[in-house]
Amino acid sequence: MYWESERLLYRPVRMSDVDALFRIYGDVRTHAFNPRGPHQSIEESRRVILQRAADRERYGFDDWAVAEKCDPQRVIGFGGVFVSEFNGEQTNNLGYRFEPAAWGRGYATELARRALSYAFDELKLADVVGVTRENHLASRRVLEKAGLVLTQRIENLDDPPANLMFTLTREAWTRRKQCGA
Q1: 3-state secondary structure of 59
Q2: Are residues 175 and 149 in contact, defined by beta-carbon separation less than 8 angstroms?
Q3: Cα angle 57-55-134, degrees, rounded to a multiple of 5
Q4: DSSP conformation class of 122
Q5: For domain 3-178, which architecture applies?
Q6: I need a surface site. Which of 23, 32, 60, 86 has the fewest CB within 10 A?
Q7: Is the bond leading into 161 cis (omega within 30 degrees of zero)?
Q8: Pairing relation of β-strands 127-133 and 149-154?
Q9: For the whole prediction, is pTM greater than 0.90?
Q10: Per residue in 78-92, pLDDT tens?
Q11: Could you tell me if residue 146 is left (phi over 0), alpha (psi between -120 and 50 degrees) or otherwise beta?
Q12: Angle CA(106)–CA(107)–CA(112) in degrees, nearest 5?
């Protein structure tokens, strides 16, 4: 199954994406705001893909591999809506991570909007959250442009700065669509 937006193509992550996942998730630049840090080995990336496949089987959805329509064979990022745990609760999490060469082109916002359409219009999820570090201004802007609103600030006393949780409900999504937003 494949999805698309104006400039991007999306498909489920598969084991053949392991090199691309490690290239992107193993890059320290893509993890500047992630307390877990970059993947340390290709084996770590392989385990992540296996977990994503298990989550897709369990929940019916998970992260996508992302490519540009003009070069559909090259994965430039990963993202979408996936189930995760945040602050002790299970969430439908909107996430995105692109290779540095793809930064600054609006791809994260394009992906976020397509992923929200998928989450609310196709999966019929009740809500979606996005979590970012307080000092990650680019990620905050993506979440806000996609229509999510700040709902929670969680202090990280052992690992500052704080995490910010942004949320969008299906009801708010539907209202926005009806108003042409």
Answers
A1: helix
A2: no
A3: 150
A4: I
A5: 3-Layer(aba) Sandwich (3.40)
A6: 60
A7: yes
A8: unpaired
A9: yes
A10: 999 999 998 889 999
A11: alpha
A12: 105
Residue 79: closest CA among 90, 67, 70, 71? 67
Copy the structure tokens of residue 130: 């996005």
Tell me the C-alpha distance between 76 and 175, whole Å: 32
Measured CA to CA in angstroms, residue 139 lies from 47, 80, 176 at distances of 26, 14, 21
CB 67 within 8 A of CB 14: no
Q: What is the dihedral of CA 68, 74, 77, 82, to 10 degrees?
A: 90
CA angle (98, 149, 178) in 5-degree steps: 100
Half-sphere exposure of 87 (CA within 13 A, CB side): 16
pLDDT digits (tens, 9 = 90+) for 52-105: 999 999 999 999 999 999 999 999 999 999 999 988 899 999 999 999 999 999
